[in-house]
Amino acid sequence: MIKIKVFKNKCGKYIGFHSSGHALYADYGNDIVCASVSVLMINLINSIEVLTEDRFKLEIHEEGGDLKLMLNNGCSGKSLLLLDSCMLGIRSVADEYGDKYIKIITKEVE
Predict the structure, then answer these.
(1) Domain map of the chain by residue range?
(2) Which single residue of 3, 26, 64, 102 could bond 94 by disulfide (Cβ 3.0 to 4.6 Å)?
(3) What is 2-108's CATH topology?
């Protein structure tokens, strides 16, 4: 199962996310759930890096399927829109394939 923790501040604004695990929907190389989530997350990271001036800390551990992004000093309206778009896509995948493969948790942090 892919577990995605979405971190928001007290004002409800994104400050980052942590994705871990694999969907195990199908065999390695054929898992469309894992591939969908991976594409959405990698595109988010690339988009924030190229289309905004926001800075972030990124940790990737491919073997465990871990990906953690934490924005430095919050995020701009552009990054907020990109994060909203990414989460819309991930929620759509979760709705289509079920919570057996993707679990999304929102966590408030300081």
Answers:
(1) 2-108
(2) 102
(3) Alpha-Beta Plaits (3.30.70)
